[in-house]
Amino acid sequence: MPYDNDNIFARILRGELPCNKVYEDEHVLAFHDINPLAPLHILVIPKGAYANTDSFAHDAPPAQQAALMRAIGVIAREQGLADNGYRVIINQGDHGGQEVPHLHAHILGGEKLAAMLVPR
Ligand code: DGP
Questions:
Q1: Counting atoms of ligand 1 from 1, which one is nearest the CA of 91?
Q2: Which of 8, 12, 24, 33 has most ligand 1 atoms within 8 Å of CB, for mutation?
Q3: Which of 33, 51, 77, 107: disulfide with 41, CB 3.0–4.6 Å?
Q4: Which of 17, 38, 39, 111 is nearest to 29 (CA)?
Q5: Cβ(35) to ligand 1 under 6 A?
Q6: Closest C-alpha to 41, from 103, 111, 102, 101
Q7: Residue 44: pLDDT above 90?
Q8: β pairing state of 40-46 and 28-32
C-alpha cells in the first residue's frame, strides 16, 4: 500500500491537526485515541511515513523499529499500567481492521479487558 501523506496521523505529525499528546521522542509520537475503547486508550505512532506493520518491519531503520517498542513500555509505566497489565494491538490491513493508514499501536488498559476475540 503506498503511503498516503494526507492521512489523519500524518497531519497530526505535521501539526496540522491537534492531538492530546502523552509522549514524544525522536522517533515516536503518542496521544490519546479520539474514540477510547478502555479507560486508557493511547495510540503510539512512528514519526516515519510507514502505512502499516508490513512496511515498517521491512523498510524502517532498526533504531526506529526499536523505538516504537521501547516507547510502548515507557508509556505504559508512565501511565501506571505496567503492574496490572494492558493490551497492545496493531491492526494491519483489511483483514486486521486497520482504518488509518499510518502504522499505530493501540495501548489499552485501566481495567480488566474483555477477551480479545470471540472464540470460533
Ligand atoms: P485502527 O482501526 O487500528 O486503524 O484504529 C484507528 C484509531 O484511530 C481508532 O481507534 C480511532 C483513532 N482515530 C481516528 N482519527 C483520529 C484522530 O483524528 N485523532 C485521534 N486522537 N485518534 C483518531
A1: 3
A2: 33
A3: 33
A4: 17
A5: yes
A6: 111
A7: yes
A8: antiparallel
C-alpha to C-alpha distance for 117 and 25, rounded to whole angstroms: 32
Ligand 1 atom 14: the closest Cα is on which residue?
A: 34
Structural domains of the chain ordered from first start: 8-109 (3.30.428.10)
Per-residue confidence band for 1, with pLDDT thresholds at 50, 70 and 90 = low
Question: What is the mean predicted confidence (pLDDT) over 54-76?
Answer: 98
Q: Give the angle 38-9-3 at the CA atoms, nearest 5°.
A: 125
Identify the band that residue 107 occupies on the pLDDT scale cut at 50, 70 and 90.
Answer: very high
What is the CA(98)–ligand 1 centre distance, in A?
9
- d(CA 35, ligand 1 centre) in Å: 7
